[in-house]
Amino acid sequence: MTPPLDRDWILAHIPHQGAMCLNDRVDAWDDESLRCTAWSHRSPEHPLCIDGRLSALVGIEYAAQAVAIHGALQGADRAPGMLGSVRGLTCDCSELDSIEGPLSIEVTRIGGDAGGLLYGFEIQGERRRLLGGRLTIVLASSAKPSA
C-alpha cells in the first residue's frame, strides 16, 4: 500500500490553489485508480458555496481534481486537461455541506488516448454513496504548430 500524500503535496502538483484545492489527502492509488479524502465541504468559506450551501453537484469538481492528482502521479509527460463532459451522473444527496464526516472520492480510469481520458467516479460520505458517474477529460494538444 502506498503512503498517504498530504495537501501540501497536492498543492505542489495540481493547478488548483488555495481554497479551490478541494481534496485534502490522497489515501491510495495505482496505475488505474486513486482515492482521496476531503474535509473542505464543511467550510463556511468554501469558494463554490451559493447562498451558504454547497450543492452535491460540486462533487463533480472534487472528482475532476482527483483525476488531476492521478495524472500528476502518472508523470509530468501528460498534457494538461479540462473537464469535457459528465455522463451517467447519479446523485443521492442534495448538498455536500450537510455531510458531517469526510468525503471519500474515488476515481478509476476506464480508458483514454492522447486526446482524452475517461474516468468513473464515486463520492461517499457517512458510509453511503453520495454521487457518481463518468468524467471525460479533454487533453490539451502537446503538438507545437509548424513554422
Distance between the termini: 48 Å
Low-confidence stretches: none
Q: How many domains, as an integer?
A: 1
What average pLDDT do the residues reach?
90
Radius of gyration: 15 Å
What's the CATH first level?
Alpha Beta
In total, the number of strands is 7
- Largest beta sheet: strand ordering: 1-2-3-5-6-7-4
Strand content: 35-45%
Q: Determine the number of helices (DSSP H or I, runs of at least 4 residues).
A: 2
| CATH topology-level fold name | Thiol Ester Dehydrase, Chain A
Fraction of helical residues: 10-25%
Question: What is the chain-wise order of helices and strands?
Answer: EHEEHEEEE
What is the fourth-level CATH superfamily?
A: Hotdog Thioesterase
Main beta sheet:
7 strands, antiparallel
CATH architecture: Roll
How would you portray this structure in words?
The structure is a single chain. The protein is of the alpha+beta class and 147 residues long. It has a single domain (5-139), classed as Thiol Ester Dehydrase, Chain A (Roll), CATH 3.10.129.10. The protein has helices spanning 7-13, 59-74, and strands spanning 5-6, 25-29, 33-38, 81-91, 103-113, 116-125, 128-139. The protein is globular, with a radius of gyration of 15 Å. The protein starts with a strand and ends in an 8-residue tail after the last strand. This is Hydroxymyristoyl-ACP dehydratase. InterPro entries: ApeP-like_dehydratase, HotDog_dom_sf.
Secondary structure elements and pairings:
Layout: E1 5-6, H1 7-13, E2 25-29, E3 33-38, H2 59-74, E4 81-91, E5 103-113, E6 116-125, E7 128-139
Antiparallel strand pairs: 1-2, 2-3, 3-5, 4-7, 5-6, 6-7
